[in-house]
Specification:
single chain, globular, TLDc domain-containing protein, TLDc_dom
């Protein structure tokens, strides 16, 4: 794996995020919150700025507590496991883990990347929110982030050979 996006170096805008990660294949997201929590998710599809949701049975959220890492698997069926908005950062489920929400509503092809200047509505990846349980299972009710949070770092790792 290779780090293809580091927010502190590449920029905190959703536009910066997509310039670095789109069409790179599956991706591991690593977040460090202002409160010191380390967590993220895995997208087997990666991102393409489609302004659509992605179904996946292989996606998951993860978090670190001490030296241990835990997984929160996607619920059976994997419906709406990921959202691939051109104006947001990583979005797992409708509300499970949202980083850099778009500043305006996303309406499919009507607001897709070919139809607008995405930088106008690009979300700020320093901001996020989490409410695990909609699309992902919080196996032992241990998910460390609830509600709104702020990030001090965000990294995305993809296959170095793509």
């Amino acid at each position: 794996l290779q780090c293809v996006y580091k927010a502190s170096k590449d920029g905190w805008s959703a536009t910066n995020f997509h310039e670095s990660v789109d069409l790179r294949g599956s991706a591991l997201v690593v977040c460090l919150s202002k409160s010191g929590k380390k967590f993220g998710g895995y997208s087997p599809a990666g991102w393409m700025s489609t302004d659509d949701y992605i179904q996946s049975n292989a996606a998951f959220l993860w978090f670190q507590r001490g030296d241990e890492a835990s997984r929160c698997p996607v619920l059976p069926g994997g419906n709406a496991a990921l959202y691939d908005y051109a104006t947001s950062g990583p979005m797992f489920g409708a509300a499970d883990l949202k980083i850099g929400e778009p500043k305006a509503a996303v309406m499919g092809g009507f607001t897709g990347p070919g139809m607008e200047d995405t930088s106008v509505n690009a979300g700020n990846l320093k901001q996020g929110s989490s409410s695990v349980g909609g699309a992902y299972e919080d196996v032992q009710n241990d998910w460390p982030i609830r509600g709104k949070f702020q990030l001090v770092e965000l990294e995305v790792y993809c296959n170095a050979n793509i």
